[in-house]
# Entry
Amino acid sequence: MLTKNIKKNKLRFLVIGLGSMGKRRIRNLLFHGQRLICGYDTRPDRRLEAKRKYGIDIIADLKKISAEDFDAMVISTPPDQHGDYIRLALKLNKHFFVEHPTSDDGYQEILKNKNFRLVKAPSCTLRFYQPIKMIKDILEKGKVGKILAFQYHAGQYLPDWHPYEDYRQVYFSKKETGACREIFPFELIWLNWLFKSKVAQVSGRISKVSDLAMDADDIILATVKYNNGILGTIIIDAIARKPYRTLRVLGSEGALDWEKFDSVIKLYQVKFKKTEIIPVPQGHPVTGYINEEEMYHDEIKSFLEAITLKKKYPHNFSDSLQFLKTLYGLEKSNLTGKKVLL
# Structure
């Protein structure tokens, strides 16, 4: 019955959490022609906003929804709330997509679940990002030779993340779900993919150096060593008044530089003795956002394709747990001052 509904483009979605990411996921579903969407949030103002903006159905009490009411769940709550909704999806035997976590709550149940037809999709947005896919292709073709080391910096002033609301009231200003704590493992998703390896050793510092009115740390300085020998330094911050997403890759036969906001990739190859400037196609951010919408559309497309049995979703919770363990290892290193083996 479910497959028949899919073919008729009549999948029914329950979107849990109607904040910034929940609204984005509704836009993604609508973009792909999915119209049967019900939204839930504990906040009445967010329920009304989603209904007004997107014309979707709204539910105020999750206890009133049954397994027959929807086919798939999108979990876009703050990360410290994922666990209960993951368990609900598994209990009701529903496909689910979940935003990036900051804890492994719910992972034990996911990894024990043996229903391999059930799509369990953790977010991996940046694997769908055009410049990162271009960088992956360049490295795969060996244009910088053997990859030896890299530097990466992702930073943006936290109050600029959501300029339409008070950052002090949002989950990313809290200690457990802080911006840097969320972003560090999120970036590892594509960095590990890029370098075709897992972090074997991590060390570094985590601190709060600004006067931002929050409990969360605002900078991470990490050094990593991969199983394949690649060394890297990673800076994640919530203090940069100018936003950055900057990567430098050092290879045996060249180097690659990318700064997201310059919209170019710079490729130096020893054999040509010059730097090639490769333009990156511009995406289309929604008003009020700095990130282009296309990669989010492609990510949800991949989730939809996995449900319709056309294509395997490219990320899984076993790998996601590994990224969290790297975060936990970094936090241990911050306390002990020692390198942590993973």
Observations:
- Residues 159 and 167 are 5 Å apart (CA to CA).
- Residues 1-8 have pLDDT under 50 and may be disordered.
- The longest strand covers residues 147-155.
